[in-house]
Amino acid sequence: MPATASITIASEAGSRKRPGYAKRDIGGIGIAVMERETAIAEVSDAVLTGGHMKLAFCNANLVNVAAGNAALQRSLSTFLVLADGIGVDVGSWMLYGKAFPANLNGTDFFPTLFAQAGRPMHVALLGGRPGVADRAVANLAKRYPGHHFSVVSHGYFAADEEQALLDKLKVQRPDLLLVAMGNPLQERFIADKLGPQHCSVAAGVGALFDFFADEVPRAPELVRQIRLEWIYRLWLEPRRLWRRYVLGNPAFLLRMARQYAMGGRRSG
What we know:
6-stranded parallel β-sheet; two-stranded antiparallel sheet; single chain; alpha/beta
């Protein structure tokens, strides 16, 4: 089925499973089995057709956060969920005997999308610490002058400011809205607050603005190639990330072992 048709059906069917690609259940989250080119095409087509797509990048941390949270897992079933990081690949090897076709982390995914987009896009940023999204927009505008980048708000807005932000999005209706609030706040915000009237694609992006704003450096290329960027990030920000990695990684592996014990090796 063409990607455009699958997106149209998804926008109409809402929570129904999107046709056109397989999913693998990693800890209760259905992650798309997709090559990078296919994922870029899916998101691009959602922009071109003016539909509405909810997009998430699933790493081991999101699996841990969603564990035992049936409401969050139901919400994520309406998203296009892409495989992010070596953790979900390890889980896929344990449960399905093979890795995902591509590592689709947002830090690499969106620059590729911006570079390959067939037409100018309006990309709006919502979230992050005060000032970070503004610096990210300034850098993005220099790197990708064919697109329009704007800031909706930092991520520390008050509850009574939320409706004004949503009304602002209705007026602007960006092609792509990047939401940086961390897991699971960004996924809940996208699932509960955003619809077709707000944007064509809403994506939860975690710490992406920090990278776009040059607040946090990427790992050296060799470290990225051998899939150990998480160790570099832990080295840079141990106080913030030690729970996610030092405690979270063993917890994730235990969840994968339990899932394997309950269902054995799967196909998909």
